Amino acid sequence: MELLFNHAGDFGQGVLVTLGLVVYGFLGSIILGTILAALKTSPIRVARAVSSCYILVFRNIPLPVQMVLFVFGLPQLDIQFSLYSSAAIALVLYTAPFVAETIRSGLNTVDRGELEASMALGFAPMTSMRLLVLPQALATVVRPLGNVYITMVKNTSVAALVGVAELTFLTDKLAVDEASPFLIFAGSAICYLVLGLAVGRLGAALDRKVAFSR
Amino acid sequence: MNNHSLFDPAGPRTRRRHLILEIVTGAALAGLALLVLATLTKKGVFSADAWAPFAQPGLWKLLGQGLLHNIAAAAVGMVLSLAVGCLLAFGLVSTRTFLRRLSRVYTDVFSSIPLLLLLYFTSLVLPNYGLRLGDFWFLVIALTLYSGAVIGDLIRSGIVALPPGQSEAALALGFSQVGTLVRVLLPQALRSMSPALVSQLIILFKGTALAYVLGGYTELLRSATVIGQYFTQSLLQAQFVAAVGFLIVNVLLGVLADSLERRQRRLETQAPSPAGSDSLVLQTA
Amino acid sequence: MKRAHLFPALAIMGALVLGTTACGGSGTAATSHPTETFPAGSTMAKIQQRGKVIVGVKFDQPLFGVKNPVTGKMEGLDIEMAKILAKDLTGDENNVDYIEAVTKNREAFLEQNKVDVVIASYAVTDQRKKAVSFAGPYLESNVALMVRKDDQSINKPADLAGKSVCSTTGARASQLIGTAAPSAKLVLFSTYSECAQALKDKRVDAVTTTEAILLGIETQNPGTFRIASGHLADSEEFAIGSAKGDTAFHAYLDEVLKKAMADGEWQKAYDVTIGKVKPGKVTPPKIVL
């Protein structure tokens, strides 16, 4: 136990970096994911094709491969971010397809008849989308989105592979140095557990909230 | 599956507008692609020097073996995860409170710990307790710890979703509790969850790439890393080839998951509600 | 041919074995083919009986120990040392089983007797000496710095102040930076080729590790990098690791190395590996461990 207290500072640092990745990852992927979902349901063929291609590619290549390619490949296009930003962006690019698919399945749950009814009542397509379809779709996707983000919390660990000193990176470093790695791992696991639980709780609370508004 | 079910078919004027939009975006995308390719060429990403190592068949053999190793680890991991998952699912639907709580704690804990951390854990801690295994097993154990938890929860929800008549009928026919679970409920749960299980296999397969941090198991990403070490000028090219390899296998698995899901849905719509005929259809399928 | 060199070596060997173990009595100096015999029960005898030396080597460290991705053959100075050992013990340099050892598991491999020796660009440190017995060294090098060719601002460790330096996780070089240039920012990747790419992209300002490895990268990327004249550490010794406490085996390993250095085998091994990036006649290191 003393061991854990001695390294409380290291753990705190790691958790902060991980938490930062979670926040940026969430913000970025919810935006990109929504755009992808919108493109995928758009009547414009090129938009649909772009979205489908993106989802196919980024969802099916393992995150470590994407991270390394992103960190070392992007500078070849004369674009360079810090390691931390690169990791965060790679995380966004990887998570967005999952968000997009979740949102799209939410859109599909809305009955077409409702849209027709609102149009018949004289609402413009975009207005009925905004007032009728999206609120309903969002209400059904909160829970599955929560799962996507619990997975993303875990995926932040992959940033360790490109030298970002987040929780897993520090855990490995400490575990190699210290005589009793078991405790180090236990401490780190608890941190992830708490982070995962927090995200889960947040999702559940949000889910209750949108459920009321229906 | 029809993508724009929410919209009415477009009229002629909208169609024309869409066409213009399509041409404009298409042209913009093509221009962007050209720009990217030009910059990459200028930086020597396509230079003969960087791709020269790939002219040797031995290199492709190494990469191919790597991919096979990923598949092997994912397959073994999946089989073990299914076994662990079934046991966990039994625990999760058990009538004994202690067993149920224990299984719940396990699934909650192991489904929220990153696979990479589990991998570091198995490779660093297990040897201290006398488990002298190769990196293949460290990978498979890590995969099983994590994936078993997820699959356990999947199977549980499959069992819970079955109509209660199923277990009632089995019990009435004289099946024991365990017999009901193993011979009646589990097969149906596995079948109804098969698309989700294939999705989990994809996650598992992607997870095998993390083994490259251990070094001792030459899977595809590891092979690509070694190639990058040996031919330092080809680091990115090797990673790119690895990415394509993973992509192909995962897309194929994704197609499998989709077709399973479609078949599942067809079965559900075909089968009339009475439970008896339902299982009949499932058996013949 | 080389038989002549064997006798003095064996004489010393015999004396050492007698001095350290009780079972040296048989004293069977050299019999005939393929090689000398050793007291029953000794590690050397065990290896001879098995007919193969089991060696822990790296599979991914060019110039030291690497599995050629094209041919699948093992290459590097570590591998040449393993071959010399196999030839001496079994009469054929191909009688080696190579087992992949990574930085993290080298000590464990020896403790668990998974391998006879570890020859895996194993740098001698005081901490490692506590767990492992080192024979040799078979190579003396230095920890160097590689920078971009056009960057004249870094020539010695002190120039690293405020700059970012790349190394790999678990490498000794990463610890040296802490003392040589405390204000330098350390970036850790999993391989040196990633470090080189990061240096090329100006993500880091220097890469540090054993000079030979850096020279290898420099040769493969002509006109991109240069090695700074100042070193991070001057004496880095690479040695053969064996199980702690087996003094007879340790003495034998030292003898094999001495012999190889005397009869030119060592130079040959050097020439086909590290000599390719750092050519020239090299004085082999003194066997001190």
UniProtKB/TrEMBL annotation, chain A:
Q: How does it sit in the membrane?
A: Multi-pass membrane protein
Does the entry feature the keyword Cell membrane, yes or no? Answer: yes
One Gene Ontology BP term is:
amino acid transport
Q: Which keywords accompany this UniProt record?
A: Amino-acid transport, Cell membrane, Membrane, Transmembrane, Transmembrane helix, Transport
Spans through the membrane: 15-39, 51-75, 81-100, 148-170, 182-204
A GO CC annotation recorded here is: ATP-binding cassette (ABC) transporter complex
State the compartments where it is located: Cell membrane
What's a Gene Ontology MF term here? transmembrane transporter activity
Has the keyword Metal-binding been applied to this entry? no
Q: Pfam families recorded for this chain?
A: BPD_transp_1 (PF00528)
Domain (ABC transmembrane type-1) spans 15-203
Q: Which residues form the signal peptide?
A: none
User: Which family does this protein fall into?
Assistant: Belongs to the binding-protein-dependent transport system permease family. HisMQ subfamily.
* Annotated PANTHER family: AMINO-ACID ABC TRANSPORTER PERMEASE PROTEIN YHDX-RELATED, MEMBRANE COMPONENT OF AMINO ACID ABC TRANSPORTER
The protein, known as: Amino acid ABC transporter permease
Q: Which organism is it from?
A: Arthrobacter wenxiniae
From TrEMBL, chain B:
Keywords of the record, alphabetical order, are: Cell membrane, Membrane, Transmembrane, Transmembrane helix, Transport
Keyword Membrane listed? The answer is yes
Subcellular location(s): the record lists: Cell membrane
Q: Which CDD domains match?
A: TM_PBP2
* InterPro entries, A to Z: AA_ABC_transptr_permease_3TM, ArtM/GltK/GlnP/TcyL/YhdX-like, MetI-like, MetI-like_sf
Residue stretches making up the ABC transmembrane type-1 domain: 67-257
What GO CC annotations are associated with the protein? Answer: ATP-binding cassette (ABC) transporter complex
Pfam families reported in the protein's UniProt record = BPD_transp_1
Which is a GO BP term held by this UniProt record? amino acid transport
Membrane topology, from the record: Multi-pass membrane protein
* Gene Ontology MF terms: transmembrane transporter activity
Membrane spanning residue stretches: 20-40, 71-93, 105-124, 136-155, 196-215, 235-257
- SUPFAM superfamilies given in the database record: MetI-like (SSF161098)
What PANTHER family does this protein map onto?
Answer: AMINO ACID ABC TRANSPORTER PERMEASE (PTHR30614:SF21), MEMBRANE COMPONENT OF AMINO ACID ABC TRANSPORTER (PTHR30614)
Q: Which family does it belong to?
A: Belongs to the binding-protein-dependent transport system permease family.
- What protein does this entry describe? Amino acid ABC transporter permease
UniProtKB/TrEMBL annotation, chain C:
Q: Which CDD domains match?
A: PBP2_GluB
Which Pfam family, just one, is annotated for this protein? SBP_bac_3
TM segment ranges: none
Question: What keywords appear on the UniProt entry?
Answer: Signal, Transport
Q: Where is the Solute-binding protein family 3/N-terminal domain?
A: 52-277
| UniProt record, GO biological process | amino acid transport
Task: Tell me which positions the record assigns to the signal sequence.
Answer: 1-24
Per the record, its GO cellular-component terms are:
extracellular region; outer membrane-bounded periplasmic space
Family named by the database record: Belongs to the bacterial solute-binding protein 3 family.
- What's this protein's name? Glutamate ABC transporter substrate-binding protein
Gene source species = Arthrobacter wenxiniae
